[in-house]
Amino acid sequence: MEVKWDQDVCSHAGVCVNSLPNVFKVEDGKFVIDSSAASEAEILETVAKCPSGALTVQN
Ligand code: SF4
């Protein structure tokens, strides 16, 4: 499963980072997504919570 992030859509609400910090994190000033660091169910739940719709999932 691959999670995509649209920088132009993201409102930087931080919901994803707070919800799953091992998956959604900032490294060296860049936003990175490690989709192997949580279960698919957890990631889907967090993607659904994103208020801006910046996160999408591709299988
Ligand atoms: S939850 Fe959505 S809007 Fe908030 S920081 Fe993450 S991608 Fe951006």
The number of helical elements comes to 2
Bound molecules: iron/sulfur cluster
CATH second-level architecture = 2-Layer Sandwich
Order of secondary-structure elements: EHEEHE
**Overall tally of structural domains:** 1
Please outline what is shown here.
The protein has 59 residues and is α+β, with helices and mostly antiparallel strands. It is built from two helices and four strands. Strand 2 (24-27) and strand 3 form a beta hairpin.
What does this structure look like?
The chain is α+β, with helices and mostly antiparallel strands and 59 residues long. The protein has a single domain, classed as 2-Layer Sandwich (Alpha-Beta Plaits). Helix content is 25%, strand content 27%. The chain has helices at 15-19, 40-49; strands spanning 2-5, 24-27, 30-33, 55-58. The strands form 2 sheets. It has a two-stranded antiparallel ribbon with strand order 1-4. A hairpin with a 2-residue loop joins β2 (24-27) and β3. It is globular and about 25 Å long.
Characteristics of this structure?
two-stranded antiparallel ribbon, 2 helices, alpha+beta, Alpha-Beta Plaits, 59 residues, binds iron/sulfur cluster, globular
Layout of helices and strands, plus pairs?
Layout: E1 2-5, H1 15-19, E2 24-27, E3 30-33, H2 40-49, E4 55-58
Antiparallel strand pairs: 1-4, 2-3
